[in-house]
Fold:
Amino acid sequence: MANLSLDEITAKYLDVLSEIGNIGAGNATSAIANMLGMKVDMSVPHVELLQVEKIGSLLGSEEDIVVGILLGVQVDIDGSMMFLMDLPSAHRLVAKMMMQDVSDVDLESAEFTEMEQSAIQEIGNIIAGAYLNALSQLTNLTLTPTVPYLSIDMAASILSVPAIMFGMQGDQALLIKTDMGDDDGGINGFFILMPENDSYVKILSALGVPV
Amino acid sequence: MGRMIKVGMADLNVCKPPDNLTTLGLGSCIGIALYDPSTKVTGLAHIMLPDSTQIRNNTNVEKFADTGIQKLYEDMIKAGANRSRIVAKIAGGAKMFQIADSNMNVGERNALASKAKLKQLGIRLLAEDTGLNYGRTVEIYSDTGDYVIKAVGKPVKTI
Structure:
């Protein structure tokens, strides 16, 4: 199977990849909104090709503490996906899920109990499952997430993980990035989809795009 | 007051007093600080991957432990460092997500590759703060060679 460089992939297939991000994230957003009965908005996905060393500052300040959930993607394509959100978003989701009053919670705290961490991982599971389901339906490929892993730390430290994954394949990273957010105290986060290089070809072929 | 010069990911820099160097939020990457106490020439590299020979499409030598440390060493000497006096301290190489797959532990491989390269260049490793599961911000001070390590929710450490 052809091994396209990321430059070729983005230039030619930008629209298709944006649509993938759109559908996946749309599904994930409604899954969360339905489960928790809260309003969640989603921005138009953004496909971006950038130098791997720029990934660390993707979220703004490298030292801002964020919540990162990493899952592997397996079966028909190999890769991983990451969902990142800021601390207030994570606290709001956890409070909703555990039926606590969010006004009792310090939204900027980086401390989460074990129970709260499990709740965040479960949210990661739901988000990733919904995202991948949408992709599966679209492509007829079998895509399942692995167990979610959680890290609450500096943005640059967490983003070093996707940076390294892309760095193993080349100098550039293709980010399919979708923000979900809600202005009035909702959640604010985004997805990064990280397929291995030959997985792009599989996704595009499955969609009937000649590669 | 000197400047605190920021070193990015897959980046390196060399300075002299009164300037100092920092790199923010090292995850699985390694921050390699080189220091010559006789001339106070100070260097910091932020590498992402262990081995440039294992990767295709690599144009940035500063991304890898082997080529990045080599370049930092050469830049130190160009800046006037005394080859035989250069010492090293390293930090980073965390495993940010506790995935069982050993292939994923690139942090540990980064640390091993960095130490191997330092040894090859005959640079003595004075101290390290590597591994575990959290991110680190580091600062290397050119006056003293102090390597200051900051992590979320942990006391500041100087090695």
Observations:
- Chain A touches chain B through 35 residues (CB under 8 Å).
- The mean pLDDT of chain A is 79.
- The CA atoms of residues 81 and 193 of chain A lie 5 Å apart.
